[in-house]
Design a protein that fits this description.
alpha/beta, single chain, elongated, seven-stranded mixed sheet
């Protein structure tokens, strides 16, 4: 197994020039050029030779080389056809890597993980394209991919959003969804000069350790997330109005107000002040109404 050769600017530039590669804005391509950050990601993901790692958006293979040295197997999913010959070159000699030229949002990752890792939980490590960070992370959780952890580079503001609590301006549907499925922990903040080309925003590495069981008991997960989305869709409105205006929900004004009162809240309460536990409770109360009206 070869040692990583990418990760410093000179080698990255040499590869890009050799293949006359042009960065594609539509794919959100920013390649890491800092070996310290790469080492930190590998360490914080706690990768061992027993692990299968899914890497999303390997780019020219910089982090893939590091992952290949640490993991038992790496499956790297890259959407940009122009990068495939480069990856075949930079990953030549790393015999535990498989490259898939696909859009990760269109792949059945749960199936891939089961086939490639005999149903055991995988680890996801990636320098994510920022424009599709949320759909990727939510897709991994909602499709019940067998996961141990997700360690990803994301926009700093998105990392902050994943770990904040009620009453803060960054708190929203993403915070609640992530905290329902996993325990979030920011590993490092990464400035723009660690990338080529430089992004306009700061970045952060966040690790999401998947829960065995969610921290709250909820009868209907899908209903809870509909309620959460409805309460943040119109932040300025009260929780009751947000739920009433949602095309996804079908409760009467009375049902909504009663449920909010049963929780010990006034009808003027806003969604952004509710904790995950309170959303679970509200969902269970409204879910019971649904059962009663169906019965």
């Amino acid at each position: 197994m070869k040692k990583p050769t990418l990760g410093n600017p000179q080698n990255t530039i040499a590869v890009l020039q050799k293949y006359d590669f042009t960065f594609q804005k539509k794919f959100g391509q920013n390649f890491l050029i800092d070996t310290h950050v790469l080492d930190k990601i590998i360490r914080s993901a706690e990768i061992t030779k027993d692990d299968m790692v899914l890497e999303i958006g390997p780019g020219i293979g910089t982090m893939t080389q590091y992952l290949a040295c640490a993991a038992g197997k790496v499956v790297a999913v890259e959407i940009d056809k122009a990068l495939i010959p480069i990856l075949e070159d930079t990953l030549d000699g790393y015999n535990n890597v498989q490259i898939i030229n696909e859009d990760v949002l269109k792949i059945d990752i749960a199936k891939l993980a089961k086939e490639q890792n005999s149903g055991r939980p995988i680890k996801v490590v990636a320098n994510l394209p920022y424009y599709i960070t949320t759909p990727i992370i939510m897709g991994l959780f909602e499709n019940h991919v067998p996961l141990k952890s997700i360690t990803v580079m994301v926009q700093k503001e998105v990392a902050d959003r994943m770990q904040v609590g009620p009453g803060t301006k960054d708190y929203g549907a993403l915070s609640l969804a992530v905290q329902y499925y996993a325990s979030p922990y920011i590993v490092a903040n990464v400035p723009p000069n660690c990338f080529m080309p430089r992004p306009k925003v700061g970045s952060a590495v966040i690790r999401l350790e998947r829960y065995e069981n969610p921290p709250v008991q909820v009868g209907d997960e899908k209903l809870m997330f509909k309620i959460i989305r409805a309460s943040f869709n119109q932040r300025r409105k009260t929780l009751a109005n947000g739920l009433r205006n949602s095309p996804e929900l079908d409760f009467t004004k009375e049902q909504i107000e009663q449920a909010i009162e049963k929780m010990g809240k006034g009808t003027s309460v806003r969604g952004e002040t509710l904790s995950l536990e309170e959303f679970a409770k509200l969902s269970n109360l409204l879910g019971a109404d649904l059962c009663n009206s169906a019965g």
